[in-house]
Design a protein that fits this description.
Elements (H helix, E strand, L loop, with lengths): L2 H6 L3 H10 L4 H19 L4 H17 L10 H19 L13 H12 L4 H9 L1 H9 L3 H12 L4 H8 L3 H21 L7
Helix pairs in contact: 2-3, 3-4, 3-5, 4-5, 5-10, 6-8, 6-9, 8-11, 9-11, 10-11
């Protein structure tokens, strides 16, 4: 096994350790997380590819600068998502408005899959309804308050556990569970206004 393969097979925590000893190894952490974090940025914003790339660069600069402070008892993926979350919030503030960035830039399949999971009840007939009403589903998700939209994205699109979301958002796990339940209820309520009663 050559050195490149060795790095690519390391755990996140091992990569953090070798990156602290040799900054060139940070490339392998970036390579692993760039697609995930860029997708997360796009799922939460409607900014251009160039602006997304700028935010991504800022996130990795902050990750590298703070790498020495990473707590090895925690999951690296949660830690980097928290930095990404904070940087996106910073960009919101720079633009003076959440709505300036929010447009739910999520692929159609992801929109439908998230709505499917949020709604709990789902059957073959519903699948056709989802496909025919993707834009309505997207609008319903977009109308969710920001705190609910992001927590649903983290849970159902980024596939984060309650503990991971707790770490990313710095909220107790019990609060995360409550927010997810409220977000699901709010989505169902909003879906009715978008003539999506048959989904819920």
């Amino acid at each position: 096994m050559d050195r490149k393969q060795s790095y690519e097979n390391m755990s996140d925590e091992q990569l953090v350790q070798v990156s602290l000893e040799n900054q060139d190894c940070f490339y392998y952490l970036m390579k692993k997380y760039e697609p995930r974090i860029l997708r997360y940025i796009k799922r939460l914003t409607n900014i251009s590819q160039d602006e997304s790339a700028d935010i991504l660069q800022e996130i990795f600069i902050k990750v590298y600068r703070n790498l020495n402070g990473f707590n090895q008892k925690l999951k690296f993926s949660s830690w980097i998502y928290r930095i990404a979350h904070n940087e996106i919030i910073n960009q919101y503030h720079k633009r003076k408005s959440y709505s300036a960035m929010i447009n739910l830039n999520i692929k159609d399949d992801d929109v439908n899959n998230m709505a499917e999971l949020v709604c709990d009840t789902f059957d073959v007939q519903d699948d056709y309804i989802f496909r025919e009403n993707t834009e309505k589903v997207r609008e319903a998700l977009k109308d969710l308050p920001d705190k609910y939209r992001e927590i649903l994205i983290l849970r159902f699109l980024e596939d984060k556990s309650y503990d991971e979301i707790s770490h990313i958002l710095r909220k107790p796990a019990g609060t995360v569970a409550t927010l997810i339940n409220r977000a699901k209820s709010k989505f169902r309520e909003i879906a009715k206004h978008h003539q999506l009663e048959s989904l819920i």
